[in-house]
Amino acid sequence: MVSKHQSQTSVGSLLKANPLFQDVMEPSMVKLLAKALDDINSITAVGSDLGVVIEKLSILTKLFDQIDIRDHKYKNEMLIFLNSEYGLKDMKIEDLRWFYVFKITHGANSYILKQIGHSIGGGYNSRDLLAEYVNSPNVIEILHVFERHVQLKAGEDEDMYTWYLTEYLDVGLDSEYVKQGGIDMIRKVGRDVLNGLKALHDRIITHRDIKADHVRGVWKTKEDGSRELIFKLIDVGIAQYHMTDESLYWGITSDFSELGVCLNI
């Protein structure tokens, strides 16, 4: 059986032999993918799990930028290969939304990897990083930011791409556990979201898109060993930093109005 850890030559051979890639993978693409896999799989698990994940994703996101993964014709086939026995070692990557939001699983831990576009695509999700300025247990935590300048194709202007890594929150408001929680659960969600909004508003930031999909929960273990479900605001891609009191007032009013609608669903 072929070892999962492959040299660049053997990984390239596997790619070329794979029916999915025989007619579509140009030599330069094979070389980039093989080099990235070799570098990622050579990283040993020394130190924290998060540190290892960041080191591996630094290489993987660079590859994704080089090949323009969102628009690559064979992105699905490439993802299948990355998750095969010949691909990523000790890591799985799952596309959650149009190849710019991924779930990363490394050992027993899961994370969310998300791409921000700056000039391309009208600056999609460009304000997500405002969450970096907010320190609250009820606002999504950004664990690391990968940023680089890239020129994707000959003749195109250089653009800046950013990927960032966050914690993975596995409890949605549509989960059976939350639905069956009754009025106490509604109070819990409302209290946690209000705490998150206060942290944003204290930084003169409003969320502007409060809805069920943008509130998720995660179980946390407390010092006494018991577990507590914590809800957090996520997806601040259209959040706004306010320059005037009047603008902030109307932004806060809108956030509270949207929260009321969310809790009434």
From TrEMBL:
Signal peptide: none annotated. Residues 40-265 form the Protein kinase domain. It comes from the Eukaryota. GO terms for molecular function: ATP binding; protein kinase activity. This is Protein kinase domain-containing protein.
